Amino acid sequence: MSDGSSFYITTPIFYVNDVPHIGHAYTEVAADVLARWHRQAGDDTWFLTGTDEHGQKILRTATANGVTPKEWADRLVETAWQPLLATIDISNDDFIRTTDKRHEVNVQLFLQRLFDAGYIYTGDYEGSYCVGCEEYKQPGDLVDGTGQYEGQQVCAIHSKPVELLQERNYFFRMSDFTQPLLDLYEKNPLFIQPESVRNEIVAFVGRGLTDLSISRQSFDWGIKVPWDDSHVVYVWFDALLNYITAAGYGADDAQFERLWPATHIVGKDIARFHAVIWPAMLMAAGLEVPKQVFGHGWLLVGGEKMSKSKLTGIAPNQITDTFGSDAFRYYFMSAINFGQDGSFSWEDLSARYQSELANGFGNLASRVVAMVLRYFDGAIPDAATLAPADETVLALERRVTSEADEAIGRLAIHEALASIWQLVDGLNGYITEQEPWALAKNPEQRERLQAVLSTAVHGVGTLAVLLSPVIPEATTKLWQALGGVGEITAVPVTRAFEWQSAGRVEPLEPLFPRVETIDGAA
Ligand code: MSP
């Protein structure tokens, strides 16, 4: 897939008011799979994630817990957000915090440049603000409250009342960018994906943009406006800039040149910030807009977006403690079409773990390794001649490799996995048909047995390479058992079928062992 340019991929930076749940982990894994795939395809890859630490929401949480916002942020980053990355095997190249000096000074630099270019003016803001969203709301964004908020207008996302703001603020002339943004969406139809998110945003911008209030005066947990330190920068304006401050904007021109623009993976709830405000900010600063904004769907629990504030949050380690990080990664990437909502259930997770990972892939690997040990004392046989069935497997390896790579290029992770799974199923079918255990009983069939096991080992090794961006732990163990030459991640994923073995297999423990029943689910 390599086209010479770099592949810079980002996740949203997460609010540190609370600990992560599986919705956050879902975004991380998706971005990680894409990053690992591109890295292994030989692309100059950079994967950024991090935390969003300013604003009223964090300030209030910290105050409620009797600590300063910085102490709170440090605590959450150290005890929850950084550990999340290890829990689900994230291979990020950088982790940015909006309280990093490198971020703060360059947010100020960016803002000053916009101010000097005439894109910022002073005005009075009067309207509603949702602290949960950290967003100014239009009347159309509000709904009638229920229960304790009966008779009030509430935020449609948080179901909580909004706050009336009346402040002297600095404004960004976002309305100047209505037409340039519409032109961008038209010229580059893939700029916002998927189609459903794109349509919604095009319609929104088509109704005309208003200017954006980008500072706050009533509290001070934020980055100071460089020419007026009685204001702090609006938290979204601050947060969006992480994508360039982490890439060297204002500090390392060569690095910035190399990395920017990025592919942004975000939840569809915040696609609008990324596909409207963010490119408008960049255009105003004379910088390139992002390569792409992909708004993925929500994890639903009981039909609703899973969230901590609605008490439906599930901690990632509740899953990984039982099933392991590979199963977490595989499950969410294969069971949900990337771009659409998906319902999480323990039953579905357990069922897929058993049928797809344990029985489908894990068993295949164990059987093939065990047969080479049993029939050839561990020495991987060579095939003297290949039968048509063997050739079919080799052709399938090539076909699924290119199909998966093409799907990853479209960010269709679930399609890539579906292609790779054709090889899992194809190899299982091949072994059932060829019956190597029967061939082994007949000394005259020795050559045929060699060809079958040589083909099967080859296919399993190709699978290991193709799956290594998704299930890195299991594939590394399998790689060792197959005597794979070099690091598995050094085999170009786009040429997975060219992997090589040193010639001998080693015993392999079950890759996906049986799990103990949890709540009757497994
Ligand atoms: N801090 C902002 C983002 C700033 S980016 C410049 C923010 N943070 S957040 O902590 O609320 O995380 C939002 C992201 O978490 C969503 O965009 C999405 O990627 C992920 N998810 C949160 N809940 C989710 C689900 N229930 N399902 C899927 N993803 C979810 O917004």
From TrEMBL:
Subcellular location: Cytoplasm
Top-level EC class as recorded in UniProt: ligase
Xref: Pfam families: Anticodon_3 (PF19303), tRNA-synt_1g (PF09334)
InterPro entries attached to this UniProt entry: Anticodon_Met, Met-tRNA_synth, Met-tRNA_synth_2, Methionyl/Leucyl_tRNA_Synth, MetRS_core, Rossmann-like_a/b/a_fold, tRNAsynth_Ia_anticodon-bd
GO annotation terms (biological process): methionyl-tRNA aminoacylation
Binding locations of Zn(2+): 130, 133, 155, 158
Catalytic activity field: tRNA(Met) + L-methionine + ATP = L-methionyl-tRNA(Met) + AMP + diphosphate
GO MF entries: ATP binding; metal ion binding; methionine-tRNA ligase activity
Domain Methionyl-tRNA synthetase anticodon-binding: 380-484
Cofactor: Zn(2+)
Protein family membership: Belongs to the class-I aminoacyl-tRNA synthetase family. MetG type 2A subfamily.
Record text on subunit structure and interactions: Monomer.
Protein name as annotated: Methionine--tRNA ligase
Species whose genome carries this gene: Subtercola boreus
